[in-house]
Design goal:
Layout: E1 14-20, E2 23-29, H1 35-42, E3 61-64, E4 67-70, E5 84-85, H2 94-105, H3 115-128, H4 134-140, H5 152-176
Antiparallel strand pairs: 1-2, 3-4, 3-5
Helix pairs in contact: 2-3, 2-5, 3-5
Length: 177
């Protein structure tokens, strides 16, 4: 018995550019390539993790137009002309530095697979909801799955940063008066 010859048609690709972390990346990809794969495999930005590839786990969370976005759900070509930021873009970001320190201090890190997506979501919580209580933080984190930490350390880390930022604002206000 001989193996039949399979003749696959050529795969069509598109050329386009993505603006990622303040840098323009010229890409040639299949139109179906989702943003997460484009970032990891074609832009070399590996902090974006792929977990479920259904938008459920949050490991692939990046920032698009200033808001968290799952990068595994849509094709990369849909993001042309929109500013994209991955975790790598936040090396000099004060809020992200606070979050990283708090995640470490509160033992919010275990295997680390969910951490990039958690940090991206946590930064959004801190900036958008400065008065968030534990229940609201947990609600906001509902789209980010962690199988290791039990979430308590992550919630405590976000609460710590919210307290630190409130304390700093209070001190600045007191000094100004």
């Amino acid at each position: 018995m001989t193996t039949p010859f399979l003749d696959f048609p050529p795969v069509a690709t598109e050329r386009f550019a993505l603006d990622v972390n303040g840098r323009r990346h010229q890409l040639e990809l299949e139109p179906r390539t989702h943003l997460a794969d484009a970032l990891r495999e074609h832009c070399g930005l590996t902090a974006t993790h792929l977990g479920c590839e259904h938008g459920v786990c949050g490991a692939c969370t990046v920032e698009v137009d200033g808001a968290p976005q799952r990068s595994c759900l849509q094709s990369a070509v849909r993001f042309v002309g929109r500013p994209i930021r991955t975790l790598e873009a936040f090396d000099d970001d004060a809020v992200m530095a606070q979050l990283r320190a708090a995640f470490s201090a509160e033992h919010a890190l275990q295997c680390g697979y969910c951490t990039p997506g958690m940090l991206m979501t946590a930064r959004d919580i801190v900036l958008r909801l400065p008065q968030a209580d534990e229940a609201r933080i947990r609600e906001e984190l509902a789209g980010n799955l962690c199988r290791c930490t039990g979430y308590q350390g992550i919630v405590q880390a976000i609460q710590r940063v919210l307290r630190e930022r409130t304390d700093t604002t209070t001190e600045e206000t007191a000094h100004a008066a």
